[in-house]
Amino acid sequence: MSQKNTIRAYAAMQPGAALVPYEFDAGDLQPHQVEVKVEYCGLCHSDVSVLNNDWGSSVYPVVAGHEIIGTIIGLGSEARGLQLGQRVGIGWTAESCQHCDYCIAGDQVMCNGGSKATIVDHAGGFAEKVRADWQWAIPLPDDLDPQSAGPLLCGGITVFDPLLKHQIQSVHHVGVIGIGGLGHMAIKLLKAWGCEITAFTSSLDKTPELIEMGADHVVNSRDSAALKNQYGKFDLLLSTVNVSLDWKSYLHTLAPHGTVHMLGLTLEPMQVPVGTLIGGNKSVTGSPTGSPAALRQLLKFAARKNIAPQIELFPMSQINEAIERLHSGQVRYRVVLKADFD
């Protein structure tokens, strides 16, 4: 018989609605799950997209929040390598099947046998407690500040995983297009990786901040003349924007064998001249987040190099004010919510 397990949260009851206090019965903890008491949870643009059903996949009520830091308060019988009281992080993915070809290969983020996002038909981290498959509860190194570590689990892994996939080394020149939540983490990670970094932004007033973060060069992302001056330079371009740009010119900024890697969800089709790809052996790729192994590697690297996202902290009880702050476009550079249910 299921034991009542009431969880307090903040939920959207319909698309576009303000979040309201909400309680639900989580039922029994499943053997493969852990239950985590939420301490902090980042606020991401993807949370807002799911709250508003922008992608057509939301199931209401929606309890969003997928950049979660907390401590384990429940362990299922099949959970391995974790302990009660241990601090962990949970990102975009809450569950994967662990038996499809992708999971067996260690590419669980591509799971096609029952993967479940933390905030789609699943209660996320805008709550006092959250549940996830034990393999997606990533141990937090002691040297990482739990207050600012949450955004690494979504935005951080999104920009870190391409460095692994494309075998980026310190000798490479990498450009980052769009310097917001994802872009500023990319600069910090690339600086610690040892790369030469060019930041592309339409807000040149950010230049002093970007140089301080580690950018070697700052270029206006919409200036055609400035883009021409970059032709042939980049081994990798990470695009974090969700708007269309002059992609033909950006492809020309790639060195031979270079790649434009898409991370922001640009809704309009890209205009890609095939001759440019063939002539320079160039490519256009994309990726979502990353596997549990990549997440563990990222957190260890961030702890070793003292990398922390730049955040603005709100109590979770002010979640609607935090969302309005995000909508303002003035956040520097990620909002984090501190759980205050007690």
UniProtKB/TrEMBL annotation:
Q: Which family does it belong to?
A: Belongs to the zinc-containing alcohol dehydrogenase family.
Keyword Kinase attached: no
Span-the-membrane segments of this chain are none
Which organism encodes this protein?
Answer: Acinetobacter radioresistens SK82
| Keywords attached to this entry | Metal-binding, Oxidoreductase, Zinc
Give the protein name, as stated in the record. Answer: GroES-like protein
**SMART domains of this UniProt entry?**
PKS_ER
Read off the InterPro entries from this record.
Answer: ADH-like_C (IPR013149), ADH-like_N (IPR013154), ADH_Zn_CS (IPR002328), CAD-like (IPR047109), D-isomer_DH_CS1 (IPR029752), ER (IPR020843), GroES-like_sf (IPR011032), NAD(P)-bd_dom_sf (IPR036291)
